[in-house]
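Field: COMPLEX_INPUT
Field: COMPONENT_COUNT = four
Field: RESIDUE_TOTAL = 1459
Field: MODE = joint
Values follow.
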Amino acid sequence: MAGDVLLSIRGLKTHFSTPNGIVTAVDGVSFDLKRGETLGLVGESGSGKTVTALSVMRLYAKPQGRIVAGEIVFDGQDITKMDDRDMHTIRGNSIAMIFQEPMTSLNPVYTIGRQIAEAIQAHRKIKTKEAWDIALESLKKVGIPDPERRLYSFPYEMSGGMRQRAMIAMAISCKPTLLIADEPTTALDVTIQAQILQLIGELKEKLGMSILMITHDLAVVAEITDRVVVMYAGRVAEYADTVSLFADPMHPYTRGLMDSITDIEKETKQLYSIPGTVPSLLGETVGCRFANRCDRATSVCLEKAPEMLEAAKGHWVSCWNRLGTGNGGARK
Amino acid sequence: MYGFLKMLRSRKIAIAGVAFLGILVILAIFAPLIAPLDPQGIDPVNRLLPPGKGHIFGTDNFGRDIWSRIVFGSRTSIVSSLGVVIFSVTLGIAIGLIAGYFKALNALFMRIIDVMMAFPSLLLALVLMTIFGRGLVNVILAVGITYLTRTTRIVYGMTLKLKEEVYIEAFKAAGASNMRLLIRHIFPNLTSPVIVQATFTFAFSLLDMASLDFLGLGLPPDIPSWGNMLSEGSIYLARAPWMLLIPGFFIVLTVLSFNLVGDVLRDQMDPRFRHDIKGV
Amino acid sequence: MRLFLPLYMAEGKAFDGAQAMLKFILRRIVGILPSLFLVSILVFSFVHLIPGDPIQILLGDMATKAQVDAVRQEMGLDKPIWIQYGKWIGGVVTGNMGNSIFFGQPVLSVIGDRAETSILLALLTLVLILAIGIPVGYLSATHYGTRLDQTISGVSMGFASIPTFWLGLSLMTFFAVTLKLFPSSGFPSILKTGNWANIRYLILPAITLSAPNSALIIRLTRASMLDVFKEDYVRTARAKGLRESSVNILHVFRNSMNSLVSALGFTFAGLVSGTVVTETVFSLPGIGKLVVDSVLRRDYPVIQGIILCIALLYMAINLLVDIAYGWLDPRIRYN
Amino acid sequence: MRRKFRFFLSTLLVLVAASGVSAATTLRYATIAEPPSLDQQVLTSDQATTIAQHIFEGLYTFNKSYDPVPMLVDKENISADGKTITLTLRQGVKFHNGKEMTSADVLASLNRWGVYGVRGPVLYAHIERVEASSKYVVRLVFKDVFAPWKSLLAFINGGPVIYPKEVAETATKQPILENQYIGTGPYKFIERNPGRYILLEKFADYVSRTDAPDGYAGKRTAIFDRIQFIPVTDVGTRVNGVKAGDYDYAEQISGDLYDMLSADPSIVTVVNEGVMMPLMFFNSANGPMKGNAKLRLAILAALDSTAALQVAVGPKNLWSANGSFMPKGTSWYSQAGLEVYNQKKPALAKSLAAEAGYKGEKITFMVSSSYKIHNDIGLVFTKQLKDAGFNIDLQIYDWATLVSKRGDPKQWDMFFTTHGFVPDPILFSFMSDAYPGWWATPEKQALAQDFTSTLDDKPRRDAWTQVQKLIYQQVPVMKVGDYFMYDIYSPRMQSFGESQLIWPKFWNVSFK
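Field: COMPLEX_OUTPUT
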């Protein structure tokens, strides 16, 4: 079974030292990503989902950021123990990443073609000419109209959607086995969003990639993920396959998230949102980090952090008084 | 301020800088009490005495006590540099804000800046000095002009940016008067870069004035000033090195301290230097 | 090298790019003229505000008022100022700036001769500044917050804090007098003698000047690189799997060059016109010293000539910097 | 990094190796400032004279003891009434343009100087006519007996050097141009490179006198092939330059370095004979000083010249607190009136000032910071006067401004300057009523009259003594004292002996 696990994260802790002290951005996160699957990583901003992803790429801001504990096993090698040279061979090669801000993620002073070719040449010893040919190929793959011309355009000459496609083209140019997509659609208008998501789906099939989809948008999750990890304040709250998660959310936070989406059928004008805000991640915290916002919180929640346990088959949750099967479901 | 102190902790040298400046201020304020002798007291018999008892820092070519002149010189130096700072900052902000805020003025402003940049401040110093004779005000004006252009440019640039900011537009829409916008909403955003610029202005104007003194275009020689001491000393480099070294060190230390402090201030105030964490 | 290639020009856009640029340059050159005119008037009136009489300086202490007035009349310095201005500016547009009162030589040749020293010195200094400032600044930025970074800051600040003539005199006494490695002062023309070895006369002055300036360039390189570091596209570059060095050079440094270019431009201009102290210490026949001497001698034509040239230089460099901007950043359009 | 450094070193060595010395002997002389022009007739700049004396020669010149002796003149003949002077020129003297010098050239030169020259009018005021009576004879006919004529002809600083006829006739008030620098001297003018140097070259066909060298007089032999006069304004640089071997001779070094440099084996010091006189002028035409001799005497009483000279000059052997306007050793030296000189009595000053009716009015004191000596003495005096209760407003200008401001009686009450050697008291600036300060009392004019109108030394000296006495009564000007400047040169030059002439000359001089 382990063979079909591509990425396995165990007890990952990532710290940032700031002028105001240590921030534990990721605090003991564990999950697996199987080959060929799309795993959703969900949470509000500040939940540590992006840092988790960056930890996989080892791209967190240095020198302030540091992985202090845990392991990230990719394709059998522990990334946390890799030296920089090996890391370079993985980044952009077997693990590629696309980002939230297509407008700013491309270097304004270079042409698209050059930037893609650069990525390719970083991993393969080939002539610039060939690299540009491959770049052209990948532009075609992501369905950019008139790719020959686009090779020579600058980012500022392209729309957001186009740029995101270009980013994707860059990402897939080295045929990665894992694609990490960090909120790839948030910055785009709704119509484009759909197209991009669809494109990612198609590419996944075509190239047989696995995808780690980071988002705060449950709609996106429902649409394309096979399984979901719900993160809150640097910890995993709930972790299940998409179907059962939506059918039967066990963590009060997950429920909160779901309720905060407008229920189209009932045309609820009032948009429900979870009271309170994500706690500061400064220093160590005792107890459950969601407690202060949780309507089910009891004394134990404040004293001890809940363990991860498998409440149902393949459905993990960390909560002292979780919503048991049956009494869950959306609010009436 | 809190952040500044925090920063200080991480930069040991900067603390030394602050300490030195503190001492300087004390010297300046209590000069008459601290200085053992009249800084102008001419004593032909005891000329060019090396540092020793009676004169810790020795005497100069007039037989004046160098330590006493250093003490009183600290006044001159602080006052004149402060003058330059006040002149360049106040005017700089005013011109920069207005030129940057009102579109009509942009082009004209750039032209004027062109001209000012092209006009060597040295010439201005010369002209002022030849017309009015050597004097504190002339020096401040002459040196101030150079920094005026710099500060103005900074303020101008920032204002151009800021007024495009959404929230400013919003206030505009809400019908806030230009005056109000400038003073209440744009100006506050300028303070930190301007303060930083000010510290560097203070530091480098001190050097510039020393250069003017060296060219005999600076402060009048009957006012004790480090720059004059230094330039008088330059002739005696071989004969009485302390005449050059002592004021020299005071100037270097002061300038250095200000630069270090300015550096900390910038790193602390300028957001782009703050440790910011991607993704969190 | 490709780091400096204006790619969008190499890639088909050359034509319209070049055309837009041409229009832009022309427009700017036209724009410069009024500024120059302004400067000329300013300078002229300024210079004539100064009390003192070139003729008295020329003839000396003992010359009687009558004698002085006579000469002044011969030179047409007794005419109303606006007539003198008209006469002067008329000459200027035909490329004749008149003769130096003090030297009796054509202003242009006097300035031209001094310009050689100043420009060579400025170039030499600029080379030093670049050689020191950029690599060190790069180190400082790439090691941001480390002890190395702080040491660099400290040391460079230290250099920036030394009064020029102090540094100059010390260098001279050590390298010229004690070690006899370099000549102590003066600068025999290279153009006139054709002897490039004379450049050695400019080495100590150049070092003197580069000390404070490279400190500033270090600070600037550091600052502007730090600015770029947090850009998203830098993260993208890393995500591509580029080596740290190529990320730093091809993406961070390359994108931080704009601010450097303008700074270097004006440093150069400053070096050509404003190095009088160094020139005095090393007794170099440079522009800065010529300004001071000419004012002290009230040599009106020379002062006016120099200031006009300096103004022109500044504006030219201003233009070059703007061109460089567009050359470095394709987003900037020339209109 | 290391490679870069090694590269730097190697280039450096190349450059150092490249610095060779040329074969022809060149004397490199570091001057304190650049002369405006070398036209000796119309300007009095000492820098100019030092250079120009190698190019141009006068009819007379000075010997070691600064008495006027023939130069271009061969024989002189003075008529019994002392009003007609016949000068026979030396024959075969060549100009740098190859032409021989004749009476025509002399006539033209004298006339140009007499009309447009700085000091010319002083002589020409007494001259009826000058005529070239034959190719080698010039005759000066005076209106009245005018004693100082020979000194005036010998004094080439602002004096009658001989130009070729073509030059002298076309020349007017303005200085002559560089291509007109044609003289009879042992060196000829090659080029001037503003800010860099003035270059002279040995004149091959120089026709020298044959009598033994004596001061400026006698045989002149050019030994250096070329002489380069290089402006080096900063004194520290001049000293370092000679030490580093970049200059062979440097003028006007600051006094306080004297003892140190004299001890330095890599340098020779030599004191210049030309006495310098710091002078403080009072405004006789306007302001509180006008006609108020008491007040001036009060100021005199307050001042301590010794202190001032000590501070401004330094070593004892470079100055003397001497109130006589003509220095010790000259036949003109006199003690007359000196009892009020250098009294340093603030108390007396206060009481005198009170008697003079001084009520603390502002006294404007103009000093130039362009010259260290002015600046320093100015500062000392200001302090002393303030301590004695005078309300001194010290105004520091650059020299040019001071010179122009002092021309206007309303701008100042006292100003400071320095005068150099004059061969005859008549040449003192203040002897002319027009010189700023405008000392023109009838007593002065009377004395000046008897002073010039006799040829015999004795009565002239007595007359001058009277003038000096008068100066110490009316105090149009106050003399601070005498000081001497000194120069330095590299030991590879042949020694100049214990003292240097006023304007260092480099004929009959060579490297060891």
